[in-house]
TrEMBL record:
Protein name: OmpA family protein
Membrane topology: Multi-pass membrane protein
GO annotation, biological process: monoatomic ion transport
Pfam family, one: OMP_b-brl
Annotated source species: Methylococcus geothermalis
Domain OmpA-like stretches: 234-350
Length: 350
């Protein structure tokens, strides 16, 4: 009887294995699952109300939703005077259950916490005294969960209702609830879905900005723009603010640091292909009168233009002073006034 039952269950298991796996779920490892078992039978005829046991499951992960598992079960019951329909005249007789089932587990999730429903069917042999032996069919249904502590170790527990039906006269059906607690150990490395490689940017003119002016090389009509320059939508120069071009106090005489900055600017202008005329715009802070600051800004613009020409710049340079008319920031401190004292190169015409 047990042999025929297990053969039939094997056919069911084979059919279940054929369920198509989710392409994004790659785990198909084998595993072992030792467990301890508590079996509560209540008022089943001729049997004590509870037994203890252990077992071992050997299973395989089929796909994202299903596991197939073969389980070997042992339960032990201790008899007393009230259990004589099965235990006979022995007040302290013992009875053991040896059997196995094939489980189909359906997983609702494969995350760290893995709840599942289970259906199981199999057979068992009961025996223990006076040559008493009973062959029984086992059917189980219940719910449980795994908790993944690592890729190769999971805690497991489930609650099942077991139907235990005898094949002999006066055997009685010994049904009840079963609590299983144990762990699962998969074999091998857990496969993980490959991480999609980041798309490789195409090396085209649209992906390049060779001069760093914010306009890609496809649209840039003025390639090779000098660093720090403001450009239009075509990448052509609008203006450059000469940061650090300072003058001696209340004077148009360039400081040594200002000359070093203008030397580098002159080198760039000489090799730069854009030869449009350039306005050299001088600006001051608000210290002093407006008339005085206007004259000072004109003198400083001339000083910068003359220095650039002396260094070999061939663009036409037109110095112009704006005094304190166009401050960059409101003046609340010396740092603000320093920002407003500046010289700018502004490209003229189309």
């Amino acid at each position: 009887m047990i042999k025929r039952t297990l053969i039939a269950l094997g056919m069911v298991a084979a059919a279940t294995v054929s369920v198509q796996a989710d392409e994004t779920f790659m785990d198909d490892r084998w595993y072992v699952a030792p467990f301890g078992e508590y079996y509560y039978t209540g008022k089943s005829p001729g049997l004590v109300s509870q037994g203890w046991g252990a077992g071992l499951g050997i299973g395989k992960i089929i796909n994202e939703y299903f596991n197939i598992e073969t389980r070997f079960i042992w339960n032990h019951f201790q008899g007393n005077a009230t259990n004589r329909p099965i235990f006979g005249q022995h007040d302290n007789a013992q009875l053991d259950l040896l059997g196995g089932t094939v489980d189909v587990q359906y997983y609702f999730s494969r995350d760290t916490f893995q709840p599942y429903a289970v259906l199981a069917a199999g057979g068992a042999s009961w025996g223990g005294h006076e040559n008493y032996r009973s062959t029984r069919f086992i059917g189980e249904a219940g719910f449980g969960a795994n908790y993944e502590l690592s890729d190769n170790f999971l805690l497991r527990g489930d609650l099942r209702y077991r139907a235990n039906m005898g094949t002999c006269d006066n055997c009685g059906n010994i049904n009840g609830f079963v609590v299983n607690v144990g762990f699962e150990v998969p074999f091998g490395e857990k496969p993980h879905a490959p991480v999609a490689a980041a798309p490789v940017a195409q090396d085209t003119c649209e992906s390049r900005d060779s001069d760093g002016d914010g306009v890609n090389d496809c649209l840039d009509k003025c390639p090779g723009t000098m660093k720090g320059a403001k450009v239009d939508s075509d990448g052509c120069l609008i203006r450059i603010e000469l940061h650090g071009v300072n003058f001696k106090y209340d004077s148009a005489e360039l400081t040594d640091s200002a000359k070093r900055i203008l030397d580098e600017t002159a080198e760039n202008l000489i090799v730069f292909p854009e030869k449009r005329d350039i306005e050299v715009a001088g600006h001051t802070s608000t210290e002093g009168t407006n008339e005085y600051n206007m004259r000072l800004s004109i003198r400083r613009a001339h000083s910068v233009a003359d220095y650039l020409k002396a260094k070999g710049v061939t663009n036409q340079l037109y110095p112009k002073g704006y005094g304190e008319e166009y401050p960059l920031v409101p003046e609340h401190s010396e740092a603000d006034r320093e920002k407003n004292r500046r010289v700018e190169l502004i490209w003229m015409g189309d």
